[in-house]
Design a protein that fits this description.
The protein is α+β, with helices and mostly antiparallel strands and 148 residues long. The protein has one domain: 2-Layer Sandwich (Alpha-Beta Plaits). It is built from nine helices and four strands, in the order E-H-H-E-H-H-E-H-H-H-E-H-H. It has a four-stranded antiparallel beta sheet with strand order 2-3-1-4. The longest helix has 13 residues. It is globular, with a radius of gyration of 15 Å. The structure holds adenosine-3',5'-cyclic-monophosphate. Adenosine-3',5'-cyclic-monophosphate binds next to loops. The site of adenosine-3',5'-cyclic-monophosphate has 8 residues, from loops.
Length: 148
C-alpha cells in the first residue's frame, strides 16, 4: 500500500537552482509519486509552530529564522514506505555524518550545515499526517486513496 510523507525543500535548496533540480531528480529517480506540490513562504510564527517539538533546543531559534528566510517547496509524496524511504534519500541530519557516511544522499551532496540541510522529511506516519495537514489543510487523504 502507498504511504504518504511530507517533504520540504528548504530555503537553502530553493535558492540554488542546481540543488533544487537535483532534489527534484532524486524524487523522480526513486519513483515517488508527487501527490501535491506548492511553493510557500513560512512566517516566523508558522515556522515556530511547525518545529514546536524542538522548542528549547539550542538550534531552535536558528532553525526557525532559517525556515522563514525565503521561499520553500512543500510536497506530499507517495510511495511504499514513503516515510523511511524519503529519509534515506535525504541522508542524515548532521552534515558531517551525511558527507562522510552518506555522500550520495541529498544532504551528503548538498547540505551546507546542520541547519541548512536542504530538505525535511516526516519522521513517522503520525508526523506525516500532522505535517501534511499543516501545509495542505485542504488535502483529504481518504478521498485521495479512494480516487486512486
Ligand atoms: P529537519 O529534518 O527539518 O528537522 C529538524 C531540523 O532541525 C533539522 O532538519 C535541521 O535543520 C535542524 N537541526 C537538527 N539538529 C540540529 C543541530 N544539531 N544543529 C542545528 N540544526 C539542527
Amino acid at each position: 500500500p502507498l504511504q504518504l510523507t511530507l517533504a520540504l525543500l528548504k530555503p537553502d535548496a530553493v535558492a540554488h537552482p542546481l540543488v533544487r533540480e537535483a532534489v527534484h531528480a532524486a524524487i523522480l529517480r526513486h519513483r515517488f509519486l508527487i501527490v501535491r506540490a506548492k511553493e510557500l513562504r513560512c512566517g516566523a510564527e508558522q515556522s515556530r509552530r511547525f518545529y514546536r517539538e524542538h522548542a528549547g533546543r539550542f538550534f531552535y531559534r536558528r532553525l526557525v529564522e532559517f525556515m522563514a528566510s525565503g521561499p520553500m517547496w512543500a510536497y506530499i509524496l507517495a510511495h511504499e514506505n514513503a516515510v523511511p524511504l524519503w529519509r534515506s534519500v535525504m541522508g542524515p541530519t548532521k552534515v558531517f555524518r551525511a558527507r562522510h557516511s552518506h555522500p550520495d544522499s541529498i544532504r551528503g551532496a548538498y547540505g551546507l550545515t546542520d541547519t541548512r540541510n536542504t530538505t525535511h522529511g516526516s519522521d513517522s506516519p503520525a508526523s506525516a499526517s500532522r505535517e501534511i495537514a499543516f501545509f495542505f489543510p485542504e488535502f483529504d487523504k481518504r478521498r485521495w486513496y479512494e480516487q486512486d
